[in-house]
Amino acid sequence: MRKLIAVLIMIVLSALHCQSASAEHNVEQADRWYNYHWGRGVTVPAANLNIGGYFKGSYNRPEGQRETLQLDDLSLFITWTPHARLRFFSEIEQHNWINNDGVENFVDKLNVERLFVDFLITDAVSARFGKFLTPFGRWNVIHSAPLVWTTNRPVVTDNFSSPFALRANGLMLNYTHIVNEHNLDVSIYLDNSTNLEPKSFNNVIFDQAAGLRVNYEVTEELQLGFSYLSYKALKDQVDQGLPIHHLLGVDFLWQHQGYELMFESLYHTLDGAGQKLEEKGMYLQGVVPLGGKVSAVARYEYFDTKELEKSLSISHIGVLGLAWRPYLPLVMKSEYRFGNNNGIIAPSGLFVSVAMFF
Amino acid sequence: MILQTIVRFLIFLGVLYSQSLWSDEILVVMGQAYAIEKISVKQLANIYRRKTIINPTGERWNPINLSSNDPLRIAFAQKIFQQPPDVMEAYWNTQYFQGIMPPYSVNSVEAMLRVLETTPSAIGYILPCHLDGRVTVVLKLTVSDDLAGSCDPQQ
Hints:
A: mainly beta, Porin, 16-stranded antiparallel beta barrel, 2 helices, B: alpha/beta, D-Maltodextrin-Binding Protein, domain 2, five-stranded mixed β-sheet
């Protein structure tokens, strides 16, 4: 535990020491072959290369369970743009490498989170090939700890109970169209994880999948989203006769001067083995700035998976917390989670974390 | 009574006129050798958000910013994003997670003009008093700010 605290303190202090006045690279400061800006990584302009990442450490005290102190994520991003139309991106992550039981084997905990190449076909159309975050809903594609307001993910987007794989392996086409001076983004993707997945710790892994994501920017402050996904999952093959899953999701995000409202809903049906089952869930999260770079966060979640998991009832979950962002790349969070029938999927308790882009 | 109404109307017109004096124009410019015909405000916002990465001919856009506390930069950001540059930093946090970096910045309008002149597909913004033969105007933005104090190109 001492090692973990020391590692966290060293990372934060080293970043604070390197803190720059601006997080933007200045053309006129090109006297060095590299630039480092806190929260934007190291850039090597001559090679069109950027190396950065983030970490998250947390203290969790779920009721009725053992308390934990752990380095949840230590993530490294590498972005390389060798050509105007080409961009390579990778995210390699150490997940739960150090915890209060000690230091785990480095290689065992190494995970390829994302690994893809973007090809810009036109100014409005691009193709992505590789392993990428499944563009279902809003949380999953921005899930990194320095970006989100709570230590825990909403249940409908969580690793444990999520009804879809959080990462897809395959091809995605993205199209942006400007409708009356508002962006309409459409993504279509095909997955073949059976043959392409490098390594994953996720509970759900696609066998094959196809999906659609639409996001419309109603105003500069309001975005509406729609997601559809159909897939076969590897975990189902043995005992459920290759059922086909269908997911529908609707979401929105409203942001105004530090206030924020985010909503996601999900409806999941499963055809196979002579029966049709369904589950559904949603969350609504609000953020209110309190001053001093502190924000209050409140979230309500509903999750009904009783048809799929007989041992579970309908869950109602509440989260109340505070998030302090003394600097933009750094956030410290503290939250209390509570609810009904939430003991297995999202236990009540106190959760505290620190996360930072470096 | 009629005279009083006319006087009030004239005062109203005077207020409107004085407000129009305070409004200013920002010119969106590119190097003479690399200029495109026209661009919309939304296309410009997408270029500066790095949402649109390449232009129609396949070259990479090079949007150039002034430093984040420059009044011209603040007025430009307010016009195209409806947000000041410091609020946009949260957006760049999200983009960093996607491997996308914010536009490069320069310390002065003169430095911006030099970069625009020599860099293909570079795009920037100046005031009408900065305009010279090195750049071509591709869009005019009307803003409500008084930017007359920003006319020194070395600023």
